[in-house]
Design brief:
The protein contains 4 helices and no strands. By secondary structure, it is an all-alpha fold. It has a domain of 82 residues.
Amino acid sequence: MGLRRVQMLVQHRAYFEHKLKDRLSFLSGKGIKSPQADKDTLVRKLKANIRAVNNRLRVIADNEKRTEEMAKIKEGRAAAPQKEQEGGRGEKPKKAPEEGKGKKIKAEKKAAPPKAPEGGKSLITTESTEEDKATMEKKVEETREEPAGQVKADK
């Protein structure tokens, strides 16, 4: 948050504190003492406003502190790889891909297999027969939606 926001919140807090002080002096002039003055609705509202402004200022201060810490961490990270690049990068031997194993799938891009339907059979099969292919094609044709206004033709 910007400096203007902080200044505005400080001004709001001063305004609410001034109003609270005026209200308490008014109530004491009427003869209402402190325990009963705390129950006054305007006093409670002004105190709540002061608490809210203080919370906002605290959050802004925490954010600024975290931003400064992150900037220090980024500076440290930026300085660290330069040292490593000079000595360590070119020395690592690269592994040649082994032949006969087929395609390798990176662990990061591996997706979990889909869950089995209620029937118990999994959707992924290692071998598929011609009958399975034919039934799958029929199911796909049945599930295809027809455009609006057209009637589905029976075979």
